[in-house]
Design brief:
The complex is a heterodimer of chains A (254) and B (257). Chain A is built from twelve helices and eight strands. Chain A has 254 residues and is of the alpha/beta class. Chain A has one domain: TIM Barrel, CATH 3.20.20. Chain A has an eight-stranded parallel β-sheet, sandwiched between helices. Chain A starts with a strand and ends with a helix. Chain B is of the alpha/beta class. Chain B contains nine helices and eight strands. Chain B has helices at residues 18-32, 49-65, 83-92, 113-122, 144-153, 168-175, 194-202, 218-226, 231-245; strands at 7-14, 36-42, 70-76, 98-101, 126-128, 159-161, 181-184, 207-208. The chains are: A alpha/beta (254), B alpha/beta (257). Chains A and B meet through helix 10 of A and helix 1, helix 7 and helix 8 of B.
Chain lengths: 254, 257
């Protein structure tokens, strides 16, 4: 199966230069690393007052690109959100949220319509608690992720697949029980950077069954995350399942 | 892996985890084909003198057991009255090849100065933890401007600023004009652009490969493999700059400011 990047972005970053921000840059990078496609969001959707402007730009980039799927960002605290979601101007393969950037919690009333929408449309949620390392933020400091809240959310709100994006390797084991209790919760590899041989340990704990490749490129270095998989002492077939996202795609196809 | 020669100039043994860390480091040397690692032992932000003795003994032991692949830094808490003795013993008796300061004092605190003068005499590099943080800054944690202060006071000292100063956009501008400061980009920050940014300001001659193992190894390898550089510059970063810097006959000069 083709290798997929389940956590990639186009666009710049407001506090430093991004040298390769465009969709063409992303495609070139993927090509160089034998990645055939991906689930793409736009970084500008985090910061722009009307994120839909960035969604339209991304949709134009992805038009006719069959290997790439659009993951739309939703900020449920904004007034146009539900109207944007229902417009159907372009195909959407998932919804990404940034609660720590946008200042709400997963239990707030403002997000409940989103859960209903995901259920109705059978779309996955790309839950993204952070982007850059919290120690290196500048000017804008997002809230810290709340793992207890994420745990409660995964236990209580069900009915649509969830991909945890850029969760740290030290955080995933804390969520292990609630992740494995459901068949449709996965985690991408973007935050696995804290130690040696991480995937070896996750494999031993049965957690790689719920891991897919996500790079957070261009904010993070794609090759670093890819090497985490390639150099792991786990069966090659398991590496392939992570890189292709086979298990996650099977859940999405249901 | 990738048939590369690699010298990792920034790895650790953590107090209380000697056997566990040693095993992991040796396993990494084997799995990743690392030619040599430079190790310092750390334990607590303000370790007492007895703990410092234990830490340095463990590094010396690790070096003795694996002299072909493991070299050591002597760790100093410069505020300790016996810091000069610890330095002398580390370099002259325990076979250490460099000196490491962490967070017990700022690196430009006056208590560091006599140690630096001795370090210059030994011709070994001084590895400085340096980390500017938006969150959780330790009260005496060195950042780029502290490194620059020390580098300007002692232009003969071969200084390595670790982690690109944590937030590279804070650390690198502070030291870019200090030609006696090299940088490693080790640690768990792996923004897609930080190595390219450092290369633009410092050039490949002033960047060293380090990882912070037993933190991740491949994170930093991925960054250099993805960087837009020539094979020659990649090799400078991966091992050639380290060979030069740790050569005690390689001395640098300059006017003190």
């Amino acid at each position: 199966m083709t290798h997929q990047d389940f956590g990639c972005f186009v666009g710049g970053w407001p506090t430093h230069k991004v040298r390769h921000p465009s969709f063409d840059d992303l495609r070139t990078l993927h090509c160089r690393n034998n990645i055939g496609g991906g689930y793409v969001s736009a970084t500008h959707t985090i910061f722009w007052n009307d994120p839909y402007e960035a969604e339209r730009d991304l949709a134009r980039d992805l038009w006719g690109q069959n290997a790439y799927r659009h993951v739309m960002t939703v900020n449920p605290t904004l007034p146009g959100t539900w109207d944007d979601l229902r417009r159907g101007e372009f195909p959407v393969a998932g919804i990404r949220i940034f609660p720590c950037f946008h200042g709400y919690s997963l239990t707030d009333d403002c997000v409940k319509p989103l859960w209903e929408f995901l259920l109705e449309k059978k779309l996955p949620l790309f839950l993204t608690p952070r982007m850059e390392d919290e120690r290196t933020t500048y000017l804008f400091h997002p809230r810290l992720p709340d793992l207890k809240q994420a745990d409660a959310f995964l236990r209580e709100v069900t009915g649509f697949p969830v991909l945890l994006c850029n969760v740290r390797d030290s955080e995933l084991p804390l969520l292990r029980e609630c992740v494995l209790a459901r068949e449709d919760v996965f985690c991408d590899t973007a935050g696995f950077k804290g130690g040696l041989f991480l995937l070896d340990e996750f494999y031993a704990q049965g957690l790689t069954e719920r891991v897919v490749f996500g790079s957070l490129s261009p904010v993070h270095c794609l090759r670093s995350t890819l090497l985490t998989i390639e150099t792991a002492a786990i069966p090659d077939a398991e590496k392939e399942r992570i890189l292709s996202g086979e298990r996650f795609l099977n859940v999405l196809a249901r | 892996m990738y048939n590369l020669t690699v010298i990792d100039i920034h790895t650790h043994l953590w107090h209380g985890y000697y056997e566990q860390n040693k095993t992991a480091l040796l396993q990494a040397i084997e799995r990743y084909g690392i030619s040599r690692i430079y190790v310092s032992a750390l334990g607590g932000y303000q370790p007492d003198p007895d703990t410092v003795t234990v830490l340095n003994s463990q590094v010396a032991q690790f070096h003795r057991e694996h002299p072909d692949t493991v070299s050591g830094y002597v760790y100093l808490s410069p505020e300790h009255p016996n810091a000069m003795d610890v330095l002398r013993r580390g370099i002259e008796e325990q076979g250490m090849d460099g000196v490491k300061l962490w967070v017990s004092t700022f690196c430009d605190d006056p208590c560091v100065f006599p140690l630096v003068e001795k370090i210059i005499g030994y011709g070994v590099p001084l590895l400085l933890h340096s980390f500017h943080k938006a969150l959780g800054q330790i009260p005496t944690e060195t950042v780029g401007k502290n490194v620059a202060n020390l580098a300007r006071r002692y232009p003969e000292c071969k200084i390595i600023m670790a982690h690109l100063g944590g937030n590279c956009y804070n650390g690198v501008p502070a030291i870019r004009d200090c030609s006696n400061v090299w940088c490693d980009y080790c640690g768990s920050i792996f923004r897609g652009d930080e190595l390219n940014y450092a290369l633009e300001y410092l050039g490949a001659d002033r960047i060293l490969y380090g990882t912070d193992m037993p933190g991740s190894y491949v994170v930093n390898l991925g960054q250099v493999l993805d960087a837009h550089i020539t094979a020659d510059d990649r090799d400078k970063i991966l091992y050639q700059n380290a060979l030069k810097l740790f050569d005690r006959d390689f001395r640098i000069g300059g006017d003190r400011k």
